[in-house]
Amino acid sequence: MIRYLVEYSLKGDDPRKDLKPAHKDFLRKYYEDGTLICAGVFTDGPGGYLLFRTASEEETRRILEQDPYIVNGARQYRIRAWDLSPFPLRESG
Hints:
The chain has a single domain (2-83), classed as Alpha-Beta Plaits.
């Protein structure tokens, strides 16, 4: 089962915290429709990962190019196709 893992990283020195609410609203739309599986930020510095359920890398890229962080040049990204193992995600208890 192929999913698309996206690494976001800071582009330049300005984190553009003013864009964070719009970025979160953007991601929420895709999370609610099931396209975005999960997202998180790194705890040791700027950046984070997103995991998408899309049909192709191109579809993932089309979505990302609408993110306010990308539109405004505040972030860059790298997309990796990820072939998930047959083991479901399990939360530690």
